[in-house]
Amino acid sequence: MPDKSNDSPIEPKFDETIHAPVRLRICGMLDAYDKLRFDALRDTLDVSDAVCSKHLKTLADHGYVTLSKKAERGSGKGYKVTWASFTDAGRAAFQAHVAALKQIVAGG
Amino acid sequence: MTDETRNPEAEPQAAATGAGEERTDMSITTATNTVMPNAAAGDSETMPSDTASGIDALGALDALNSLHELNSDRDRMAKRSEHGMRAMCIHLSLLYIPGVLAYWSIGLMFGGRFVSDIAYIVTMTALVLIVLSPLLLIARYRKTTGMPAFATNSAKRAAFRDRRFFAAYLTSIIAQLLLPWTGFAWGFIGGNWIGAIVLAVLTALAIYGLERWHIREWTRVSRLPVAPEEDPHAR
């Protein structure tokens, strides 16, 4: 099993921003796929547009996620699709947070 | 976003999200106590040990639930990715039929079987279109799944450490690069068109099989849990 924790020791650090369930799940998906379209995130989370958008904005405000709007063919005239990608700070914070969760589960 | 795309269960979900944030507040305290025990040393001294251990257990359960959610999402995303990759795999394999035939034509030319400017231009144009057409498949994959076709993140790099995935990936790439050259070799020795078609179909089938193996391995690796799930009460 590929274990990223073997790359370098990750300092466990609990992150209040990331720990909110929807935001944690968004971060988990972005950690695995780097960059995801808004509807892919929304459908997987099974939440409304507004909820997904709100949490993405919170993550973006903290510098964890970058949001970019791109026009895509077939998506309608003048309609732009939002893509979310992880920043380095976001990835580091998420990995530290997951390490903290593991520590909590382990009773550390 | 349009109203059509709005989830009808938005309100209960929004409420659930709010509840999640409340849950965050509770677990932050607990988590802080656990991860940074010095910060909460004073509180734990005044708290009965049974209560403190109960809160710790709740914190552990909350953390376990969070990890469980991450694992479930990985599973869902892996299925979504697999679905898109399978669709791409069929079209990619079919592209190798005209691809091998184009290589066969070039083989015939290099073997001196026919030399014509028009045939040369037509064959080369077809070959260029065939080589570029996977770009359309990649764009289609992105459009269908909402994911990039080539992830360059640490998770993808970590997947290469898995021997089975690496073997499947390498075999598939090598086959895609080398197998079309059998068409060239067949043309170079003056092989007929029936043989070229058989060769093209066999190549497409081989690449389809190898790609399916590659996709299966990628799905397996991308479904691996973020953390093994353990029951904190098991201890």
From TrEMBL, chain A:
InterPro entries on file:
ArsR-like_HTH, WH-like_DNA-bd_sf, WH_DNA-bd_dom, WH_DNA-bd_sf
Where does the record place the Winged helix DNA-binding domain? Answer: 22-105
Q: Which Pfam families match?
A: HTH_34
What protein name applies here?
ArsR family transcriptional regulator
State the species of origin.
Bifidobacterium callimiconis
UniProtKB/TrEMBL annotation, chain B:
* Residue span of region Disordered: 1-30
Transmembrane region positions? 84-106, 118-139, 166-187, 193-210
Alphabetically list the UniProt keywords: Membrane, Transmembrane, Transmembrane helix
Q: Which domain of life does the protein's organism represent?
A: Bacteria
Q: What is this protein called?
A: Uncharacterized protein
Q: Name its species.
A: Bifidobacterium callimiconis
The root-end lineage is:
Bacteria, Bacillati, Actinomycetota, Actinomycetes, Bifidobacteriales
